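Re: the 212-residue chain
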Amino acid sequence: MEKEIFLNSLYQEMDKGNLQTLGIYGHGGSGKSVLAQELWTLIGKNRANLLETDVYVLDGSVRDLVAPRSFLDQKVTACMPLAHELGSLERDIKALQAGLDILTIERDWQQSKRLSGEKPILIVEGMSVAFLPSALFDVRICLYTDEATSLARRLTRDVAHRNRSQDFVKAMEKERRDQYRAYYEAYQAQADILINQSQNQFVIERNTYFSD
């Protein structure tokens, strides 16, 4: 299934009311943010909320208190559940599903904004989605890619928008890849739809929600 056909299929399901809460997750640089933005634009920002979960990742001062068991010389990355404020995220998802407004968390790189509970569709995007109960979502989509592609995307994003050096991004990519394979990759099996975007392709490897 080509990407445009896939997006239109999701749109039709959302438009008919069959899909109200979508979860989109994957490792950093997998293309999940782009897919979420495309869906949000397609369904209409007046009809859907986009809840980005990066703001629910705990900052370094908290994560520095622990170390990954298999990588004692590395910092904890977002590949591990303990790096996420999952209780607050689940609360906010349930509030929006119940028709209540929420204010998103403010970070140095992102201002707080109000999401309206009146909008019928909710797209939740970010690594945190993998660690949440599947019952929160009508469908969960997981994306992944090869190391070279994710590094190129990280360099484009983090250097330009988060004021990080190329050397820092490259070093962190190795740590993230190590921990992704050890802790996060297994969560791909939980997705209803699994998409491989290696080398900037779009290949649906598993689709248990609807057929091609």
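The chain has one domain: 3-207.
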